[in-house]
Amino acid sequence: MQLNSNQIQEIIPHRYPFLLIDRITECVPGKMAVGRKCVSANEMQFMGHFPEKHVMPGVLIIEALAQTGAVALLMEEENKGKIALFGGIKKARFRRQVIPGDVLELHCEIITRKGPVGIGKATAYVDGEVAVEGELTFAIDAES
Length: 144
Known about the structure:
It is a single chain. By secondary structure, the protein is α+β, with helices and mostly antiparallel strands. The protein has one domain: Hotdog Thioesterase (Thiol Ester Dehydrase, Chain A). The protein is 15% helix and 40% strand. The protein has two helices and six strands; from the N terminus they run H-E-E-H-E-E-E-E. Strands 1-2-4-5-6-3 form a six-stranded antiparallel beta sheet, with helices on one face. The longest helix has 17 residues, at 58-74. The mean pLDDT is 96.
């Protein structure tokens, strides 16, 4: 299953400038999703991070991974129309810099679920090389 940016916006609430995934290339609802983010020098964060040497902030790469995982969770029928909240991160490692021109391939596999809480194994790649990895905790907002 593939989703473009308009279809992604039907699933998660993020919008410019905080929608950090351009496309979902693969998704098994409730289990995993693979997304893509094309990094451009025209993005707002590069005005200050860093003007003389553009490097995508690691926290934004983590957020892109979390958005990818949220798509997987919110594609489940029982979660449609809800919001997946970011609950935490463990074992985060930043392995390489991400710069304009890079294409991030974002993988998030939901490895544990208990009620509305899930844990995802998340990895971001550039050209097949690990850029960022970690375990993300999600919570489905029961009030949404």
